[in-house]
Specification:
The structure is a homodimer of 237-residue chains. Chain A has helices at 65-77, 143-160, 174-185, 191-200, and strands spanning 19-32, 35-42, 52-53, 56-58, 85-92, 103-111, 128-131, 205-211, 220-224. With 237 residues, the first copy, chain A, is α+β, with helices and mostly antiparallel strands. The first copy, chain A, has two domains: 21-158, Nucleoside Triphosphate Pyrophosphohydrolase, CATH 3.90.79; 162-224, Orthogonal Bundle (Arc Repressor Mutant, subunit A), CATH 1.10.10.10. Chain B binds a DNA duplex (27 and 27 nucleotides) through residues 173-175, 190-193, 195-197, 199, 211, 213-220, 232, 235, 237.
Chain lengths: 237, 237
Amino acid sequence: MTITVEGTYRQGGDNSVGQISVTVDLVVLTIRQGELCVLLVERGIPPYQGRWALPGGFVHEDEDLLAAAGRELREETGLAAAPGHLEQLRTYGEPGRDPRGRVVSVAHLALLPDLPAPVAGSDAAGASWHRLAAIAGPLAFDHGRILRDGVERARAKLEYTPLATAFCPAEFTIAELRGVYEAVWGTTLDARNFHRKATTTAGFVVSTGQRTQRVGRPAELYRRGDAEVLHPPLLRA
Amino acid sequence: MTITVEGTYRQGGDNSVGQISVTVDLVVLTIRQGELCVLLVERGIPPYQGRWALPGGFVHEDEDLLAAAGRELREETGLAAAPGHLEQLRTYGEPGRDPRGRVVSVAHLALLPDLPAPVAGSDAAGASWHRLAAIAGPLAFDHGRILRDGVERARAKLEYTPLATAFCPAEFTIAELRGVYEAVWGTTLDARNFHRKATTTAGFVVSTGQRTQRVGRPAELYRRGDAEVLHPPLLRA
DNA sequence: AGAATAGTGTCTCTAAGACACTATATA
DNA sequence: TATATAGTGTCTTAGAGACACTATTCT
């Protein structure tokens, strides 16, 4: 079924009906063994058969864009965005981006903790995690560009929001949080300065009173604070 | 004419064709007499007849999204984005946002200098500038929300990019640049500290060697520098 | 005791904010 | 000379980066 808009959108405008296929694509990032990873699916049919692509699919008739992205994430990974973070990234609509016709894709960015439940066993045939540094060939469609934009968005948002916590489990140590920054930015940070910074920036993290039990001195466990923005920001060098 | 995508988008996906109307809407900002202003058009037909709305229209069949936004800007204002700035803002696709049917709008943000050529005389019947602080009723559709998002984007980008120069003519004084910050942020800034900051931040502005001729000591004229990002940023209090 | 990891204290340097002062034009 | 606007210098303070040191666990 196709919905048709009747009448001019506004006076002075033209009447071309602009019916276009709308999809959502997902840049799903997580951190595994200290490395930034992205979820990719292998294309089984043309175009770009055999290439890796971002997960995604068509927006349903009566479905919000963010809801569509959440549904696709669930279908492809078997996991909800609940413990992590999901936001709109950017919309890609260049006429030639899909050889089959005009498709506008509203890309979304998801940040997830490294969940114990693996991706396998979900609906998605070939969804798998790939270390960002080790992606072999070019991705299908313009997904390479979308992936780059998503990674850059994540890198930038770590600076001025507490979003690094989306990569962590509900309770985490300062060292784990620092590991997120190091993996996403591809740098190393001074553990002492980072600790001071993270614990003194208002609303970034709150102590739970609990401690870890591993080798070495036990680390205090923290939960995400209520700040939406970091004041002052945690800038990259 | 309607383009239809044949075949599944990718394996594992569903087959709903997701045909939706795609439009571009524009948040066009400028500064007039020291106040931040937005370009609005009055709706002559239902729905929302008589209400103010953002300019916009349908994306053409073989047209890029940014190009569509540029075209609408030209049609509504008679002016190109060339001297200013145009970027994608965000996409709005809530199912109920247009009572006539499913319409996904890719909103764009345009920042323009206060051009001597007025908006009148252009294609647009009722396009006019409105002081942001003095917009009477609610806007049509979800345009109030889009406008808020656009203004917030502009406010944020002044912090860490040299985008304030998009509101200025090609050559401008430091006092004019400061006026942009004050209008967009709705604050007052210390003229002396701002001068130091603007002239010492690498790549923000470059001197032309020219000077103004008005009352008082002549001010040096500057042009936009080649920096894409301000290091360090110029943060709001 | 020794290894391993967590967390604190201190110093230096950069940059922001407050504000007095100097500079150069017009009326 | 008065007025108006442009631009510089200085002081204080917040915060980032470098890095020595202390703390608390396990083996």
